[in-house]
Amino acid sequence: MVERANINPAMMLWARKRAGYINGFEEDLPKDIKSKYKSWESGEEKPTWTQLRKASKKFCLPSAFFFLEKVPEDDDFPKMINYRKLDADDIFENNSPSLIKQIRKSQSRREHYLDLLYELEENIPSFEIYEGSLNKKHVSNYIREKLGISLETQKTWIRKNKSKDSRHYNFLNKWKEIITRKIGVLIFESEGVALNEMRGLCIFHKEVPIILLNGKDSVNGRIFSLFHELTHLLLGQSAICGDDENIDEEIFYNAVAGEFLVPNEDLCKNTNADNMDTISNGAGGNYLNNQIKYNGEPYCAVVLEAYEKGIINGGEFSRFTNLNKKFIPFMFNRYLFS
């Protein structure tokens, strides 16, 4: 006779919901769990010990939790502003189980980090919120001052042999290390989360906040998201951000990231239509080409900055980006904010 585990059915329901297998995500459960979870939750049937271990692993909880008499009242999941647009094609009203798992994992790592600091009798740094004016240049300058990295220093990070770092891993790794060391933000990268669900997110804590980047994103995309999420933290926000960077609330955060990576002043000082023409034809060695190598900034953002400053006109914008001029207002929303 197969021995069964006398679990609390309410705990099985709580565990499934906690892991995010609701509102259609139940279909992603393994067959042997999907075919049985309703009977386990109703108490009609008890799982075998093998089934319980599988459910425990899938729901990321020790097996002992399923024997608790009372369902926990508090949920330790962080509350974040959802900046992901909801539409018929991509509905993220609920986070996927994969994303929930990565968020809980990052929170757990933070707790271990704090425990380690406590054991080593190290000071736990407080995170300082930005209290100045909401101007992209002011916030960008504040970030650069806090990190202690000048634009000139940033430019020295390019590898002499560019083929060894064509994707800018050196920049990403340096920025992550500096942000953690200088202002106490823990930075992680997710595994197994769809890029169209989350590009980056941040969880604000007064001590040791978190940034979680999507490991499936390009390196340049992660660099941009890193400073986008850092701006959210500096304003005391926890947020989850997706592909819909043109929505009103996200414009400012994109603008700060763009200004930090490619400052307007430096752009205007070194850019003209002639050297933009050079990069559009694929040649190297000019200022704009170097900006993309140095900063990992999306090329369209660089061209748009030049258009905003009157360095190029609408026709040249179309030629350099291969986009119709009608896209200029959309691109302004995506990348620029005064």
UniProtKB/TrEMBL annotation:
Instruction: Say which domain of life the source belongs to.
Output: Archaea
Q: Name one Pfam family in it.
A: Peptidase_M78
Q: Which residues form the IrrE N-terminal-like domain?
A: 204-267
**Name of this protein:** IrrE N-terminal-like domain-containing protein
Tell me which species this is from: Methanobrevibacter ruminantium (strain ATCC 35063 / DSM 1093 / JCM 13430 / OCM 146 / M1)
